[in-house]
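WARN retry 2 of 3 for item q-0093 after timeout on previous attempt; input resubmitted unchanged.
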Amino acid sequence: MAKTAIVIGSGIAGIAAAIRLAKRGYTVSVFEANNYPGGKLSEIRLGAYRFDAGPSLFTLPALVDELFELCGMNPADSFVYEQLDETCRYFFPDGIKLTAWADREKLKQEFLEKLNEPKENVEAALNQSQWLYSQLAPLFIEKSLHKPGTWLSTKAFAAYSRLHKFDFNRTMHEANSKRFENEKTTQLFNRYATYNGSDPYQTPATLNIIPHLEFGIGAYFPKGGMHSITQTLYELAEKVGVRFYFNTTVQKIVVHNGTAKGIDTHMGFHKADRIVCNMDMVAAYRTLLKDQHQPKKLLNQPKSSSALIFYWGIKKSFPQLGLHNIFFTSDYKREFEHIFDKGSLFKDPTVYVNITSVMNPSDAPSGCQNWFTMINVPNNQGQDWDYLIQYARKAIINKLSENLGTNIESFIEEESVLDPRLIELKTSSVAGALYGNSSNNKFAAFLRHPNFSSKIRHLYFCGGSVHPGGGIPLCLSSAKTPKCVKKRTDAKSKCLIDTSVFYM
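OK item q-0093 returned
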């Protein structure tokens, strides 16, 4: 009889885990509370406009390709993407505009011409980011931090002698401000802390690993938009036999004698040999596992930032805007102080505008654009979000209107808003924190929940709230479902659990 597995949640990590389990011979069922797959990686439509609802930057497409290859299929037959010539357009308060080119020489020349930043400084930063990736990805991303074998490996011992080079003891801002001559260059590289919901003035400089994903490996755009990642993987999962149950809320993970046996839903009990939870880790323990041991230290870690997003159908085209656009604040430090220390919004927020119609014209009517307009905000701590939404809307419109030389409000013909409250409601992300726990201290990587339960056999975890972290690449990495081999890890377990992840 085939073994059975249940995946709770159909976020991208849950779908990827389901595919991997199916290819290992499991009969797989995915239970999803919403009526659609994808979690944060979904889409919305407003009139004639289409928007990617959540993540907007696509890096490391090989992680998606690998799932097709695992199933014996050519990824290009189902999933098409292209590398971007530019990663982002930056707009500074004093009117300076900078394009982050994919070509390294063009990029360094751009920094020199626009910011008078010496080429060698930019080259050094990119080389350091690449080196960090080469050293840390195989050890701390591709392996479980929660297994002794990781720390006793040859790679680990080699890394111990280079710990000082990993920059754990400086903040990202401290490292960047020392490397660059122009504070605008520092601000631009500090921005990468927001990729996992952190504060560059608190998070360790180790996170300078992130720019390598864009500048070293490349930024991409999938045909049909980001939602096509979810859709193609959902279709792939169905092809390999995975069954999806939408509009089905899991009420409890049933545990007997220290072993996960199945789940309870409104349709009754569902038995399984393996349970993979793609739900936010904190929410899972508070609801599905509330009668089990609670890892209080992990549950009580500070949470990442959230987002406030305005989906605007704009009945005008702005050729000075690209796919990714950043309009910087004049005081980056104060903005992060408001987000993480005060739990409030800064009067002059940094604004991100993603316009997929630049790449996919069908996402907006002719001569129009679909603006995914986002600012980083604190997670939900009971703030008056109805007031803050209006406060932010006015600040954003004023900022963009000034930069673009026209009153953009008059061109908004469709509008929808996503705030931390709705993020929590739709995705179970506690407090609307997009990346689970924050990474604002040097031990944050070690304070994420492992991809397995040390207390409950046959229970595993994936997604942005557990190791190795949030964002599409790390979520896909977390989905390399543990597999059993002959050797035992302890007296209670019947198998050695390989919780390693394969790529960032």
